[in-house]
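Consider a protein example.
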Amino acid sequence: MTITKGTPMTTPADILVVKGLEKTYFSTEPPTTVLQGIDLTVATGEFLVVMGASGSGKSTLLYCISGMDRPTAGRVELQGRDLTSLTDAQMSRARLTTMGFIFQQAHFLANLSIRDNILLPALKATPKQAGAVTARVDGLLARFGIAAVADHGITQVSGGQLQRASICRALATEPAILFADEPTGALNTSVTAEVMDALTAIHRDKTTIVMVTHDPACAARADRVVYLRDGAVVDARALGAWTEGEARAREDEVLVWLRGLGF
């Protein structure tokens, strides 16, 4: 099939379609190719995890499909819109209004409270709906159990509370898709479980999630896991819907699969 600039690639069941994605850094000698012709489809409402060894290109893939970085070649289509054809200003607006982001570090402003850090980008996205946005943020703070620390500074809360605040910020604009880059990478085991419980609850609400992780226990929460090696997808594992009663069996399944891939 020949894909032209104006031909949508997505089907009604797909929210994200990636075709022939490549990323090369020309600042090195010789140039370094990090992504090599990746094709990837994410269904609406799917929880997809990307795994791979360090240097496999998983974070670069996340940055390119979310518009935080520009691919060297290929195409990324979100809800039928070709992101690779957008100007920088259009891409910034698309990230603000249609995507949510959770990172390993919260990247909050130190001079603002937890609540204001969540509220600020949401108000920027829809400035004419201040009342509705404020009510939504307050609802998210309550839902994720951090309403009591909403007026605290970012150094006055725990790591788990801060990451739950990051989830609130990501959801405050009601994004079509949520991107998460190692969201539990800096957390201990108990707090990791707390954050993954929150992401699982979001997914049950039919939110589409694409997450990069190195943790097999976190990957076991996903509907599907894809594995990268040297910038290419080399395998994928469909897991189906996650249930707490099957958690251990799913973790074991993912571990056996990853070991077979040399992880």
User: Anything to note?
Assistant: Residues 23 and 72 are 5 Å apart (CA to CA). Residues 1-8 have pLDDT under 50 and may be disordered. Strands lie at 14-25, 32-43, 47-52, 73-78, 81-82, 99-102, 177-181, 208-212, 224-229, 232-238. DSSP finds eight helices and ten strands in the chain.
